[in-house]
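Q: For a teaching handout, I want to show students what a protein-ligand complex looks like in token form. Below are the inputs, and the small molecule is magnesium ion. Please produce the holo structure.
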Amino acid sequence: MIKIATLIEDANSIGKEVTVKGWVRTFRANRFIALNDGSTLQNLQCVVDFENLEEALLKQINTGAALAVKGELVASQGKGQSVEIQVTELSVLGGADPEQYPIQPKKHSFEFLREQAHLRVRTNTFSAVMRVRSALAFAVHQFFRNEGFYYVNTPIITGSDAEGAGEMFRVTTLEPKNPPLGEDETVDYKQDFFAKETHLTVSGQLEAETYAMGLGNVYTFGPTFRAENSNTTRHLAEFWMIEPEMAFYDLNDNIDLAEAFIKYILQYILDHCKEDLAFLDQRLTQEEKSKPQAERSEMGLLEKIQFVVANEFKRISYTEAIYILKNSKPNKKKKFKFPVNEWGVDLQSEHERFLVEKHFKCPVVLFDYPAQIKAFYMRLNEDQKTVGAMDILFPGIGEMVGGSQREERLDVLQERIAAQGIDAAELDWYLDLRRFGTAPHSGFGLGFERLVQFSTGMGNIRDVIPFPRTPQNASF
Ligand code: 4AD
Ligand code: MG
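A: Here is the structure, written as tokens, with magnesium ion included.
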């Protein structure tokens, strides 16, 4: 058996007898089967000689059916393909009743396909997105390997809330109807599986820090979970995050690494996913045509990716960003839902989008945020007001990366933990890093699905992960 991608690439196969297995996309004129095996966007044209096929077999060649075909590979005379198979043997491995198979050769809406998430990878768009996703993941590992980082696996079940935002899913084996109660009539988690309260992790960072303080440079790449009730096109309850953590890096080193990292992986897909990206570029251009002129993107997908790779990210402090926003047209004309009046407010996505899409028109790194709106572990700056945080904002996406230099001073960290009302006992192991051989260190988290969204031009984050988990939805 040979993959269709290999047959199309390798002209040496012409004249040889080959066996190909895949799924029928279309069947025309009782003669031409377009077969797809997932190895490429392109279908292989299989020409079947009607005389040789039994009627019963012919009836089973429907869109969606799985076939094995054998025959000679020849240069194609027809338009649209370079090679085709002159089929001599054909067997139907599994039929697909046309009355029932939902993925017919016509345009389906993404909403409809979300309900068919188990079958949607058999469409051009989803197969292209998922091949690009896979290439991006590979490039992530390749980048860090080239840079001498170690890949570490941090726990998914955890007793601490890394972001301190309290948006966690509980992990328990207690009976919901009849949990054991303690003396104060609240649930007694001492009797739970781990003899304490546990949750699904929102981030592997705290554990990654421990490994950076021994291995030097490490990264995680795993699933993370957030029980935030955000029904947006950029939030998932279960998403994948890449979190590098580097000993002896300050905030600038951290930003430099993040920028180089993003450019490397985008260049990787430009080099290795040409066909899929060209298809997704066209798809996006078509979609943009249905939008009003003012909302259309100025650049196509490939152009956008190339632009990010070729240009420096704009770096500005939170304070500068507030200045720009305060004096911006939409703020003066009261067009922002959340007006920007004073230093200290958290930035909303409308503000981020203004900075990235209207003002700078390129990826923007914002750094040195007010301490009170950021997590406890971020390093307090000398001004005692801001922390060494950085967010990277992308056009059409908003926040792609969130990171910081970590607070390495024990006393300052303890104060920040106390100020945020966090139980220091849960973090004693984390504080140990500051007790024994503490050192400046930094890291960031990149939301993988947001990167896939940017790379594929897909508008909804639910369409770049095989089985999205969102509020009210955990089907499949
Ligand atoms: O900014 P966040 O919350 O940062 C952290 O979790 C840090 N512990 C990372 C670190 O420094 N090691 O999340 C990091 C990124 C965001 O910038 C965003 O891209 C993504 O994770 N993200 C989400 N992606 C999809 N759905 C959600 N609900 C997301 N929440 C965050
Ligand atoms: Mg963030």
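A: Two things your students might notice: The chain has two domains: 4-103, 124-167+202-463. The domain at 4-103 is CATH 2.40.50.140 (OB fold (Dihydrolipoamide Acetyltransferase, E2P)).
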